[in-house]
Specification:
The chain is an all-beta fold. The protein contains no helices and 10 strands. The chain has one domain: Sandwich (Jelly Rolls), CATH 2.60.120.10. Helix content is 0%, strand content 60%. The protein is globular and about 30 Å long. 22% of the residues are buried.
Length: 105
């Protein structure tokens, strides 16, 4: 079990960086920081993703449907759903994945 914040920040796009906070084979928690206007490009993965907006404001598109989340709000991305986002303000997301995203390690 990894519960120490030993993973470095990784550049994940223009104005986006992330770091793994904790993980087991069954689950992973990741901190993601966005500059205002930065994009999380549309993608999909087999993992169920829970997103908690710790700061800022984001517009997510999930399977063609838009939803806006602000600090203190959350949403769940189903397995294999095409999704992406734009940071409407500089902000931070806390993402949880089940199972773990091995491609992030």
């Amino acid at each position: 079990m990894n519960t120490e914040n030993t993973h470095p920040w990784v550049e994940a796009g223009d104005g986006v960086r992330r770091r793994v906070l904790a993980h087991t084979p069954e689950a992973m928690t990741v901190e993601v920081e966005f500059q205002s206007g930065a994009l999380g490009d549309p993608h999909s993965h087999a993992h169920v993703q829970t997103i908690f907006c710790a700061a800022g404001k984001f517009r997510f598109t999930v399977e063609g449907e838009d939803v806006t989340v602000s600090a203190g709000e959350s949403l769940i991305i189903p397995s294999n759903a095409v999704h992406g986002c734009v940071a409407l303000e500089t902000g931070k997301l806390i993402d949880s994945f089940t199972p773990r995203r091995d491609d992030f390690l």
